[in-house]
Amino acid sequence: MKKIRGRMDESILVCVYYGPNGERLIRRGHKLAQMMDCPLYVLTVDALPYDEFDADKSGFVEHWKELCEELDVEEFIIRDKEKRSVKAIKDVAHTYNITQIIIGQSAQNRWEEITKGSFVNVLLREISFIDLHIVSVDRTLKSTDDTIYEKGVRAFIQEDGEVPGQYRLKFTRSKHNLYEGIFYKEIGTDFNNGVFKFVNNKGKTSQVHITENVCTGELKEPPNIDKSIH
């Protein structure tokens, strides 16, 4: 009886938005839901219609869907064509009887709010009946010297045909590509300097640094592109 009562009393909602931190938030929510033995829901909100998502956003959504299936999440919810993210979260929270919400530390930026902290403050006012968890997110896209990166773009890595053992960044599909992922370019540089992040074959996020289109870090993970499809 205690197990059933726990599922009735508590229900968790994880809010994810564009970027590599969604997986970490979902896994954090899953651990909490296991501890409390309660349902877990995952929500993403976007102002655009679903069929107008760019390749990057669509890629993250598909990965989140697969992760939710793997973790036996109750439901993955997409609220597209929604310009008011707080309203969408509030509506979903009411619909699914949510008692706890998990968002990322930098949510006020991710959810397109202008004033620092405004998103959290507005959300707290709207959902005063719900516990809000603000989780520290992966900060690898901001280095120790406060380097800031542009919005990520779809990119690929392939072996340099002229320099053995060297790998180069590419932006077009090719049978020579070995890795597919997202490239985050440093702001303020004319060259392709930045970070290439990709999901390895075990579903974990890995990254390698890029300097003038060349991988300067060691690619320890095996290629994540299935060559048999080319």
Automatic annotation (TrEMBL):
Transmembrane segments: none annotated. Residues 11-127 form the UspA domain. SUPFAM superfamilies: Adenine nucleotide alpha hydrolases-like (SSF52402). InterPro entries: Histidine_kinase_KdpD, Rossmann-like_a/b/a_fold, UspA. PANTHER family: SENSOR PROTEIN KDPD. This is Universal stress protein. It comes from Oceanobacillus aidingensis. The lineage of its organism: Bacteria, Bacillati, Bacillota, Bacilli, Bacillales.
